[in-house]
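hey can u run this one w/ FE3-S4 cluster bound, need the structure tokens asap thx
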Amino acid sequence: MKKVYIETYGCQMNVNDTEVVFSILAAHGYARTEEIAEADVIMANTCSIRDNAEQRIWGRIDYFNTFRKAKADLVVGILGCMAERLKDALLDTGKVNIVAGPDAYRSLPALLDAVCEGHPQMNVELSREETYGDISPVRIDKNGVSAFISIMRGCNNVCSYCVVPYTRGAERSRDYHTIVREACECVEKGYKEVTLLGQNVDSYLYEDVNFAKLLEMVAQVSPSLRVRFSTSHPKDISDEVIDTMAAWPNICHHIHLPVQSGNDRILEKMRRRYSREWYLGRVARIRQTMPDCGITTDAIVGFCSETEDEFRDTLSIFEEVGYDAAFMFNYSERPGTLASKKYPDDIPLDVKTRRLNELIELQNRLSLESNRRDLGKVFEVLVEGPSKKNDAELCGRTGSNKMCVWADSTHKAGDYVKVRVNDCTSATLLCELA
Ligand code: SAH
Ligand code: SF4
Ligand code: F3S
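ok here u go:
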């Protein structure tokens, strides 16, 4: 049996895609290995979202090639968004044998067979239909508690800065029957939490089933299965989705609602198609219906022509919402995107970085304030396993997606446990068994 090693970069959808790839390869007689040195096939499932994500992969390609010394017929493959974006340029390096885009994974066994005959292979065809709906992913998570389920692929939004619509193609929703079946399989295998994945889950639509109905269907699979989802688009998140979250006790009260910027002119240039006021209205509706709902976000600083005052609007919307956590990035120009064609990337790196640090500092304070509001409260958390720092402690998340740690020698991964918050850092709630 040939052994395959895959490193995964980028978003949760890529993690789930790697699981799909392992499933496809397993059906063709390939075994998974976590030891790069014993692999016959080394692959990276890659991300193109920012330039530094791609730079990291170039380094990995060189590293993978060092294993050719010991194994002359080693196959090196690049999967995912960077494969889709760079295509032949990857093969031209002479360091890569296989290039396969996100919709081409069913062809991997055939590509691998052809490579064995000595020729590099590429399939970067995008599809309007492919959802891998019939494939049961081979889970690669370590804890056996929480699983990802992709509910759609691609994206039709074409935000001006974003490469995803080009690397992942047009949006398509997966047949809900296969989603519910996969959630049932997860329960049978002992999983306690599923996260429904899509670039814009609120535009899920298969026949007459929208995202709210899908959420309800998955919530009904088992009352002890926690349901999460990501990512919501502020322009699309509906009252129906918010009300469905509130109605089902096993749907976690956490919404990742990427704001990107707090300034209307920048939002317009980003083609996000909502205003600051609209965004704040959605947050108000969420809080009114679910006061305990965790709200997290993504933001980009230093987008084309962003002034200091416009950046201040991002700071102020962070302050106004009081996010529980955030991912924050310097704008990175991506070739081929609308922004790269229309607007110069004119904010100097040192200005971007200063703004980014200011935003991160603010968010650290907001995260700490958010955690302090939870002092003394009791939460039901799902145990994920031992805490990273201390084997005598367990860790697990609240429904609102906050990480808790507490001393515990009686419970194990997959248990639901009640904990009381005694103390906190900006990243973690420090708890005891309640
Ligand atoms: N579909 C999701 C986002 C997917 S990409 C959504 O619309 O919210 C994850 C995050 O990467 C984005 O929210 C954005 O903040 C960031 N990002 C995307 N393109 C970027 C770019 N060119 N430069 C910097 N950050 C970017
Ligand atoms: Fe990119 Fe916008 Fe689609 Fe998100 S919604 S993946 S940011 S184009
Ligand atoms: Fe990256 Fe592709 Fe995901 S660009 S963020 S791996 S969709």
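Residues 49-50, 161-162, 164, 199-200, 231, 233, 258, 260, 298, 300, 329, 331-332, 334 surround S-adenosyl-L-homocysteine (ligand 1) (CB under 6 Å). anyway lmk if its weird
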